[in-house]
């Protein structure tokens, strides 16, 4: 797989993914969710088929060696590129950085394929989602802009910095904002905004003091830890775990947590006793919690 990292570019993997998924009859996670009109049972069958295929390929990879094993691992990664697209879109939306984030997500996917241990009894998708998401989060923390200015603002900032040097050499001092604006043919407000964008290129260090006379680290003044990325991981992992349940279990979950039916109402609808519904819910929730063990315990426990 190390060779795959060097030879399999994300763009090539994406092209292979389209043909492979079409051949297998699989759709992306997002398409599966949006295309509910195809029927819950059909969706469950597709998920189950893909999971069986993935398990078989991992079993073959375990027996293979060298280049043969790398080819199998590449095929597994290509078949799951839809996870990368879904996570990248959820985390950064339609921003210009989506291509870079997808490439980073592909690296996370390859790592997940390399590190996955089928014998542990957890399906590949619930394992891969936190791995891919973690790779993307590290990239954004280490390389991303805190607030990404529009490209036009970035370009004006570069022009303003060049003009500052040029005008300074001509007039023998640093130019004023008004002089810069006149030189560039822009308003003072535009120039001020563009130069202020410099602070967005990298966020201030959380270890920096909050003020010259206050040594308190800035990070200690932040009251809330944003867990939005973890929530994305949880949602995708839970969705994958639910898809592995049989039709009746999925129906019971839907009636209880989507339609907010009582256990007695559920029992009447599916033709069992209220006690049986209670046992079904206990068993299914225990199964789902087990699938979420790879996430933060506090978040998994809230599911």
Automatic annotation (TrEMBL):
Pfam families: Sigma70_r2, Sigma70_r3, Sigma70_r4. InterPro entries: RNA_pol_sigma-70_dom, RNA_pol_sigma70, RNA_pol_sigma70_r2, RNA_pol_sigma70_r3, RNA_pol_sigma70_r4, RNA_pol_sigma_r2, RNA_pol_sigma_r3/r4-like, WH-like_DNA-bd_sf. One of its GO terms (biological process) is DNA-templated transcription initiation. It comes from the Bacteria. SUPFAM superfamilies: Sigma2 domain of RNA polymerase sigma factors, Sigma3 and sigma4 domains of RNA polymerase sigma factors. The keyword Amino-acid biosynthesis does not apply. Keywords: DNA-binding, Sigma factor, Transcription, Transcription regulation. Residues 79-145, 156-225, 242-289 form the RNA polymerase sigma-70 region domain. NCBIfam families: sigma70-ECF. GO terms for molecular function: DNA binding; sigma factor activity. This is Sigma-70 family RNA polymerase sigma factor.
């Amino acid at each position: 797989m190390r060779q795959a990292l060097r030879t399999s570019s994300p763009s090539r993997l994406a092209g292979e993914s389209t043909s492979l998924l079409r051949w297998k009859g699989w759709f992306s996670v997002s398409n599966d969710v949006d295309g509910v009109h195809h029927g819950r049972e059909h969706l469950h069958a597709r998920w189950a088929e893909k999971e069986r295929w993935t398990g078989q390929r991992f079993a073959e990879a375990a027996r293979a060696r060298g280049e043969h094993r790398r080819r199998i691992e590449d095929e597994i990664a290509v078949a799951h590129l839809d996870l990368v697209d879904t996570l990248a879109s959820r985390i950064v939306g339609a921003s210009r950085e989506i291509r870079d984030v997808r490439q980073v997500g592909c690296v996370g996917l390859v790592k997940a394929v390399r590190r996955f241990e089928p014998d542990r009894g957890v399906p590949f998708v619930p394992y891969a989602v936190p791995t891919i998401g973690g790779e993307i989060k590290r990239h954004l923390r280490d390389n991303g802009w805190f607030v990404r200015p529009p490209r036009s603002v970035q370009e004006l900032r570069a022009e303003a910095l060049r003009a500052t040097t040029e005008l300074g050499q001509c007039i023998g001092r640093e130019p004023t904002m008004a002089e810069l604006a006149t030189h560039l043919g822009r308003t003072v407000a535009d120039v001020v905004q563009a130069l202020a964008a410099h602070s967005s290129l990298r966020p201030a260090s959380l270890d920096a003091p909050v003020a010259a006379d206050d040594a308190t680290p800035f990070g200690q003044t932040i009251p809330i830890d944003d867990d939005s990325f973890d929530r994305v991981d949880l949602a995708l992992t839970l969705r994958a775990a639910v898809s592995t349940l049989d039709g009746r279990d999925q129906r019971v979950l839907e009636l209880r947590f989507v339609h907010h039916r009582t256990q007695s109402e559920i029992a009447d609808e599916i033709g069992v006793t209220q006690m049986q519904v209670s046992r079904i819910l206990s068993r299914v929730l225990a199964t789902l919690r087990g699938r979420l063990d790879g996430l933060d315990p506090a978040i998994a426990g809230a599911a």
